[in-house]
Design a protein that fits this description.
Helix content is 31%, strand content 25%. It has 405 residues and is α/β, with parallel strands linked by helices. The chain folds into 2 domains: 171 residues, TIM Barrel, CATH 3.20.20.10; 138 residues, Lyase, Ornithine Decarboxylase, Chain A, domain 1 (Beta Barrel), CATH 2.40.37.10. The structure holds pyridoxal-5'-phosphate. Pyridoxal-5'-phosphate binds next to strand 10 and helix 10.
């Protein structure tokens, strides 16, 4: 993502804090995924960034929707997707969620009781519903034994249910697994895909399932800092291709799906925040910027983790925390001499620290600070109601260079 400084200067004339999503970058990244996995369909994980223009851009590339709520189902529908392109997978759906989604999305049941609730809803609606089930498999993401999880149905329970219980208004035609996000090791993902195909085969042979699709969830990560070695999606696609294609060859018409949120947009967004004040306190220089914790919370969460943890490398806890140094900061005054500053926000709490003792060019009121990696799990995660402040704008830079609200 390479946004001209002039574009940022122009936006900053009218906005004190803003997200900017770059269509060119989104198209490039979604295009890379499609080219790397020609036999796979992609579902965009709406939760990471549901901005309507972002949805239109990604769905325009042929991606379906991974919806995590009825609200996301409706957003995907409004963006023009058909029922068979929207997969609604989330724990704890209410009966209103189920009934509201019946005709709009493919429901992925997250528990045995939920299958029974969908059976009741389908019977009342006089339909037979083709659904998927989310499975918590007998293996972990890194290949060890299966783990306890609030997500999905344990593989053995799902198999027993499918063999023994009769739900005449429900037909299970797909499985969904998602165990982990933000993986940068292609070998780990390749083995995970192999384990998933073996699971699908067990569900077919052990329970007589005729699968129409296998949704392999997400996992593909992005480099947040210079220390992260980027995942080579072309290499991963090529390494997995033979097994994926062989699996499909033996099941004509079967659809393989991969979900992705952050790969598509994580690096295609930035956050701009204007300097509102500067002060020196007992020798320490503070730059006070607009809407930091309450506009883009993740950099402040990093500081919180650092503050609370005794671990020098605390483990990631996505989507709130990836690792220290996951966000870059730059200004539009890069040629000027640097000074050590602490970048904080304008909330009445001391916890909205964004970065401590970093070197930035000397900033004055009105200057812009740009934070990178703000395309995914950014606006949606941030507590914008806090302190009744103005919200940051969400802007979209089209491939033609136009900035749209
Ligand atoms: C079920 C499921 N699918 C997909 C994703 C998207 O993950 P990512 O944004 O890392 O691609 C998530 C993220 O939490 C998820 O829970």
């Amino acid at each position: 993502m390479n946004i001209p400084a002039e574009t940022l200067r122009t936006i900053a004339k009218t906005h004190d804090s803003f997200y900017l999503y770059d269509e060119r970058s989104i198209l490039e990244r979604t295009g890379r995924l499609k080219a790397a996995f020609p036999s796979v369909e992609f579902l965009y994980s709406v939760k990471c960034n549901p901005a309507p223009r972002v949805l239109a851009c990604i769905f325009g590339q042929g991606f379906g929707a991974d919806a995590a709520s009825l609200g996301e189902v409706l957003r995907a529908e409004q963006a023009g997707l058909q029922r068979e392109q929207i997969y609604y997978s989330a724990p704890g759906k209410t009966m209103a969620d189920i009934e509201g989604a019946l005709s709009k999305a493919v429901l992925i049941a997250d528990s045995l009781d939920e299958i029974r609730r969908i059976e009741d809803a389908a019977a009342r609606a006089g339909r037979t519903e083709e659904i998927g089930i989310r499975i918590n498999p007998n293996f972990s993401f890194y290949g060890g034994p299966g783990e306890a999880s609030k997500f999905g149905i344990d593989e053995d329970q799902a198999a027993a249910f499918l063999r023994e219980e009769d739900c005449p208004h429900v037909r299970v035609t797909g499985i969904h697994v998602h165990l982990h996000s933000q993986e940068l090791d292609a070998g780990v993902l390749e083995r995970y895909y192999e384990n998933l195909l073996a699971l699908a085969e067990r569900m077919e042979t052990g329970c007589g399932l005729r699968l129409a699709y296998v949704n392999m969830g997400s996992g593909i990560g992005i480099p947040y800092s210079g220390e992260d070695v980027p995942l080579d999606v072309e290499k991963l696609g090529a390494a997995a291709a033979e097994k994926l294609e062989e699996f499909r060859r033996r099941r004509p018409g079967l659809r393989l799906m991969i979900e992705t949120g952050r790969y598509a947009v994580g690096k295609s967004g930035l956050y701009g925040t204007k300097v509102l004040d500067r002060k020196v306190s007992r020798g320490k220089t503070y730059i006070i910027a607009k809407n930091t914790l309450n506009g883009f919370i993740r950099p402040s969460v990093e500081k919180m983790v650092e503050h609370c943890s005794r671990d020098s490398r605390p483990p990631m806890w996505e989507p709130l925390f990836t690792h220290a140094g996951a966000f870059g900061f730059y200004t539009l005054k890069e040629d000027e001499p640097r000074e050590e500053v602490t970048l904080v926000g304008n909330l009445c709490t001391a916890t909205d620290v964004v970065a401590e003792n970093i070197l930035l060019p000397r900033l004055e009121c009105g200057d812009l600070v740009v934070i990178t990696n703000a395309g995914a799990y950014a606006a949606v995660l941030s507590p914008m109601q806090f302190a009744s402040q103005e919200r940051p704008a969400e802007l979209f830079l089209t491939a033609a260079g136009e900035v749209l609200e």
